[in-house]
Amino acid sequence: MTRIIASALRPLRGSLGLNGSRVFRLGSVESAQPTRTATTYASSSAAKPASPSQSSYTRAATSTTSSNSKPAQANTKNSNTPFAESQTNPVPSAPYSRPQELGTIPEAPPAAAFSPSSADNGIDWSSSFHGLSTVPFDADVAAVLMKPVPFEDVEIKPDGIIYLPEIKYRRILNQAFGPGGWGMAPRGELTVGERVVTREYALLVHGRFIAQARGECQYFADDGIATAGEGCKSNALMRCCKDLGIASELWDPRYIRDFKKKYAQEIWVEHVVTKKKRQTWVRRGDEPSYPFKKC
Question: Ranges of Polar residues compositional bias (predicted)?
C-alpha cells in the first residue's frame, strides 16, 4: 500500500519543482516571523521589570538637578535686589573690641583692709596677748557690761546651780561693742576625751586680748562631738565674760541663796520610764522637764 501511494505522489513532486520549495520556504519564513515577534515581545516584556529601577535612578537625578537649578533661577531673577548685591559683594565687618566704659573687674580687697587697725596685722591670736590691760573701756560700755542681771533671765539646773543662758552673754556683748566688735579665738586644738571635749579660747574685743578660758562639754555618742564642740565654745565664752563683769552676781554665794529662796524650789519628781523618784530644782511656777514628772 505504501508503494502505491509513493508512486502516486511522484508526478506531483515533479510538477511543483522549484516553486514548491520556494512556497514552502516562504511559508516557513512567514511562520517564523510570528515566532520572532513573540520573542521580541517577550524580551521587551522581560525588560520592563528592570525599567522601574532605571526610571527611579533617572528621576532622582532629574529631581536633584531640578532642585539645584531652582535656587540658581531665583538668584538670577533676584540678582538686582539690594540683598542679593550685599550677598554677592559682602562688606567686611569691623573686628570686635571691648567697650571702653567697661574696665577690668576689681579684685577683692586684701584681708588687711578689714582689720580694726594696721597695728593688728601679723598677730597670731593662738598665742598672743596683744592689748591686754592697755586702755579701760568707756563708762557707757562699762555700764552695759556690769548691769545687774534681771531675775527673769536667770535659770537653775536640776542640781541647784544657777546660770545665765549663753545667748544672753552674746546679747550683752553685742550691746556693748556692737556685732562684729568682739570674737572668740581658739588657743589650741579640740581635745576629745572619753565623754567630754575641751578647748581653750581667747575673748578679743576691737583687736585687743581680753580674757582666756577653757570650755568643756559632755557628749554621749561619736556623732555628738561636733555639737559638743559648739557647746565647748559657749562655755568658754561664759567663763571669759567673768573678767568683763558680766553676770558676776551668779558667782556670789549670797545672791545664789537669795535667788533660790525667792525664785526657786526643790520638788520630788518621778521618771516616767523607770518610775524612779528623786529631788530636783525648778523655778517657781515651772514644771519639771521630760522625762520627769511631778509626784
Answer: 70-91
